[in-house]
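Folding follows sequence. Below is one example:
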Amino acid sequence: MKHLFTILAAFLIEASTFAQTGIGTTTPDPSAQLEVSSTTKGFLPPRMTTEQRDAIVNPATGLQIYNTTTNTLEYNNASGWVSLISNPNGVNAGEMQYWDGSNWVNITIGTEAQTLTIANGLPVWQTPVNRSLILSVNMPVEIHASRVSSISVNLESLYPDTELVLCWSTLPNPTTTDNVVTPIDHGEGAFYIDLSGLIANTTYYVRAHAINAYGATYSDEISFNTIFEDPPMQIGQPFLGGILAYVLQSGDSGYDPLIPHGLIATYSDLVTTSWAPLTAPDGNSTSLGSGAQNTSGIKSFSNGALQCSRLTLNGYSDWFLPSRDELIKVLLNRVAIGNFLVAGYWSSSDFSSTQAWHVFYTSSPSPQIKQQPFGIRAVRAF
């Protein structure tokens, strides 16, 4: 009988070892060793922080916990702990998530106009190169082929460290593999270039190309036509950074019957100042065409010459104080040029160590004491 009870106990122990367990149900699913059933309560796994989770020694594959640091249900696989939740909590509205191979990671919100792209296999926000490249139409519709023609480029909201070139061709949609010119920076988004060597009776296409760390882009295209006949040049018209003040005539030094040359004046006077605060060396020229050289030689001690040499206007920085004879030519056209505010102006031509040539537009030029204040009007040659 004793042996019979021993065998029965062993049978019962063996049977209970392989029995299924149901909590809240008497009929657990045949595929489950343990089934918890409830409509009013949930299953609560062990809860711990990431630090506590990582302190578990040799966690078994399949071990589950609730991570209170990340607020996610996690399990351990052969590679480590993995989140069971596909939508971990974000921080701000609009955030997105990506899988980094082990966990779901929040992507911070980008800024307006940014695009989401893939870099090194991971999503990143990218700021595109600004497309606000506008070629200004501040140029004639028809341009004479034999002249240097100015085109202005206006750029709005360019990102820093952007390289800009102007592409032009006789075919639409010119690229950087065609003719390329680097514009002159005029500040505040304004750029200027000069085109030369154009063919007469031809349509040209122009667009800007910008490139920076975010990428590259082209502006919208504009076009213009060149003409063969030389349109009349009118004193007082806007021209190459200023106002056309004088065109060289036959007999003038530097005159070319095929290509016009002359002087361009600023739109208004620069200052009223003395020629020099003290006596200064003399010996420069009064002739037509000598103003630029005069200015270079006297700008270290002549107030007027210094003001002109420092000037950068409409993309041009080669302004100078005109010589006596140049100033005479300019003042003869003062009405068409406009904005002459005083009666007398300094030239860059000196007369002696104490006097320099001054030109009244109501009388002949005359030497004046260098410390006297007179008007300064800058010019540049073309």
